[in-house]
Amino acid sequence: MKNNPKVEDNFPWDQTMRNHFTTFPKFLISSILLISILCIFYTVSFSNSSNKDLNIITAVHGGREEVAVAPPPVPSPKPSPSSKTTLRQIVFGIAASARLWDHRKNYIKLWWKAQMRGVVWLDKGVKPGIDDHLLPQKMISGDTSKFKYNNPKGHRSAIRISRIVSETLRLGLDDVRWFVMGDDDTFFVPDNLVRVLSKYDHNQFYYIGSSSESHLQNINFSYGMAYGGGGFAISYPLAKALAKMQDRCIQRYPGLYGSDDRIHACMAELGVPLTKEPGFHQYDVFGNLLGLLSAHPIAPLVSIHHLDKVEPIFPNMNRVQALKRLNIPINLDSAALMQQSVCYDKTRSWTVSISWGYTVQINRGIFSVREMEMPARTFLNWYKRADYTGFAFNTRPVTRHVCQKPFVYYLSKVSYNKVMNQTVSEHVQHQVSNPDCKWKMADPSRIERVEVYRKPDPNLWDKPPRRNCCRVLPTKKKGTMVIDVGVCGDDEVIELR
Asked: Which residues span the membrane (predicted)?
């Protein structure tokens, strides 16, 4: 009888499984060996890494090894922060014309200091003067006849002026952080300019200035443009970038009106926006600056432009004489110049507004600070047909009510008391004819002079901006009001009542 194979022999997977069971111990042993090798490798690697991080030191003492862990390495000290910007590190480029030089150089002499650096760029040469040592160096701008200019209302001198920063850069002066552009009819407060620019990193691209007071001017040109008459600042690296491309840029904009809109066009191509600082003043206005200066923004006063277009800032004197008087408080406490404080004489129901170094105004009645910080419209719009809506900021009307007209006291003198560490400024009433007020309340006309006491604070702008407080002090001096101005106390509030 033929032998039948076992049933199991008919299943091929059975043989395969037997082969797997036979090789399984070998596979297991190989896996264990591989895992062991990997563990040893990673242990050694981790140990080396740890030793590196912990800075393990092995030393031999008395025939045995001792391991000590050194403290982590001391990081290299960070470079000290850059020192504050000095006046010497700011270079001015002043736009001027030979035709107006003999007149306008008198403005520059008022604010220019011996340690400053800069160039007055003229369209042609002028005769040397005996006062040249009191002024910046004079140079003649480069030829711009190759550039196209087709604006029907402007003048092609705008091209020359727009290149002032680049031409000043190419002089190769050392240790320059900022280039500042301005006109020959601009009055600068140099120490306040330093305070403003010190807030910014001069190693970065910065284009700093402000817009016009005229809404229509800003509409016609740009709210994002720094107006050159009011002055603007360009950091050194940005000036280098501008100089490399400016001539090509100028050729692309033959239809623009002035120099500052050409600068702005090039800044737009460089991708650098305007950093606004409210202390740069274009003053595109006519008339009396009293309303603007007595309600100055809470920011350092940097510049005043259009000196030939507005009235002297102090009455009964010419423009140069008025600015000379302004230099007196500038030399004593430039940080506080034109800073407004508001307080109340509650016993007489008066509102008092002080613009330090300039004016004191006394108003019958109680007015809110919100109202007093709006400039009164003592000035006219740049566009004769524009009304108050043509200004680029809030204003308030000059009152017609005889009882609500402010009594204005202009600065007559100021001194510094070293013992008390305070300035003492005297303000004298500006005599104007006023009809009698019928209100049954105290009459400010009996106050002939106002004394203001203030401790100088050179670090005023290193802190967050805040309006100073003022306090009306009791006095036995006849016809005199005495006021203290200074940092507000912990819980001091300028309250209406």
From this structure: 27-46
b/e string for 133-157 if b means 16 or more Cβ within 10 A?
A: eebbebbebeebeebebeeeebeeb
- Sorted by where each begins, the domain ranges of the chain are 22-69, 87-282, 328-486
Beta strands in 365-488 (DSSP E): 379-381, 407-417, 422-429, 449-454, 469-473, 480-486
Structure tokens at 257: 């009106």
Q: What crossing angle do the helices spanning 101-111 and 319-333 adopt, rounded to 10°?
A: 20
* R_g of the chain computed on alpha carbons: 37
Kindly state the tokens that stand for 79. Answer: 């470079």
Distance, CA of 16 to chain centre: 86
Amino acid at residue number 185: D
CA distance 315 to 317: 6
Q: Does domain 87-282 have CATH number 3.90.550.50?
A: yes
Crossing angle of helices 259-270 and 236-251, rounded to 10°: 110
Q: How far apart are CA 359 and CA 314, in angstroms?
A: 9
CB 232 within 8 A of CB 180: yes
- Higher pLDDT pick, 195 / 19: 195
Give per-residue pLDDT as tens, 324-356.
999 999 999 999 999 999 999 999 999 999 999
Give the C-alpha distances (Å, rounded to integers) separating 240 from 90, 122, 143: 15, 22, 20
Tell me the pLDDT tens digit for each residue of 85-104. Answer: 999 999 999 999 999 999 99
Phi (first) and psi of residue 163, to 5 degrees: -95, 5
Across 77-190, the runs of DSSP E, i.e. the strands, are: 90-95, 117-122, 137-140, 178-183, 187-188
Residue 232's H or E segment, with its range, is: strand 232-235
Say which residues have a Cβ less than 8 Å from residue 88's Cβ, sequence separation at least 6: 115, 116, 117, 175
